[in-house]
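ugh ok fine here u go
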Amino acid sequence: MLDFANCLGSWRPDFLVEDGEEGDEIFRITEINARFSFNGFIHEAYGQEVINRSVNAVGSDWVGATDHKTILNGLFGLFDPSRPLYLLKGTEPGIDIHMFADAVRSRYGIGPRIIRPEDLRMLATDDSKTGRRLYCDAKELIPDVQAPRIKAENGEVWEEIRQVGLELHQKELASLDPEMLHQVALRCFNDMRTILLVHDKRMLGIIREEVPRLMERRVLTPEQGAVLNKGIVETIIPGSQAMHDLIGDSATAPHLRHGYILKPIRSGKGDGIVFGDDIENDEWISRLRDLASPRLVAGVSCVVQRRIVPREYDLLLKASVGAVKYPLVGTYHVTNGILLGLGTDKTASHVELPRLNPNMKFNQVIAALATTAVAIDWLPTVPLHARQITSGAKYECHEDCGYAILGADQDGYCTNSTWTDLFDGCLECANEFNIWQYYGDGVTEAAEPCDLDATPAAANSTTNATASTGASATDTTASPTSSGTAEASDEASGAGLNKPTTLVLGAAMLAAVQFL
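structure:
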């Protein structure tokens, strides 16, 4: 395997912000998400593109906190686009992984194949360093997946896997045959050490425990040690002396538990977190005693973290509601040790939050959040699926209809030739692509002050053809075939990406993730 320093993979640390003694903002990392390498990347990139264009358009002093191209390039830099790409997923429904597959296809012209653990196959061979090659059962052939294929004795067509991304829970990894897991680990572009160790909540506690020794050995400077101690929330790991001390202190000071939370060591998304003040002290002490040993117990093992009382920020979510004070959960993206930028913030009216980037000013986050929040009112108008269409006539139709709605906010739009062209374009294509159901009300409302007829043209039956067929599934190859090298494509950039509808589409999608 590669040296870990050269393949750190995808990390998404979460942070909270609490008030310092002098009213300043103190950022605390509460966990590192590394289980699923795609999570948040595509939503963040599309949404950030929206925000940056919106901020630039109004000519203010605000700036976007992140460059969307940097986010995408960091994610795409995890794998080799010259090789066929496989995405191994299990029970996790996933969001970004599906958008990632579409983005890879648009950018590189290669179609990642999404496979399940039960599709994996191995073949003993003398020409492999490990003595085995990894394959999947290609139940149906995908034209843009150009991988070496063989026909197995049982009649299955197998495609060789040379690189794979994972979206599997730990128990799904553990259920794989050990040798199969070994082969997957050798080809996984998000290193298995990242998935199993960096994601583990105990890692933060271990780092804090090791800081003094690392400074003594001059691995860390005193300044670096201070940054880690300040930037990582206090995390007590099972079996540690700090855990034993907490058990004793909790017995004599019952209210001590109010300042702590229990967090399962391998969970994500806030699953299984227990706040000390939500349970009685007897149960609290019982739970702590289960953590007196470092031995891992499924469903029991947790870390204990100091409870962060998050700072609240003024947010304008809807004009009809006005400003509200909400806490925020922040995150940032890192690939192979390189900071890519801030990620999607989350909030709720009452939420206990886990997420830090000390190099970013928090007002940049607020600017991005406030800009995005206005898109919530557009969610019924601009459906989330529209953003998945990145080019072509249907995409342009979405643009025309969206612009027709947005442009109605401008003075004198009825006599603006650009707006009328967009309006006419929307009426001509909306039925053809079956999107009038999403834009009809908004376009009709925009047309009324202009005394315009907002009746869409009838769909042209000659253009409503089914998708063209590619290679037939019967075109299987009985012997191994060579893998072709896909040429990179810049088509994903699209000629219309500088239009305001694209901004609303992406903002609506990002807003949905943040607030719905």
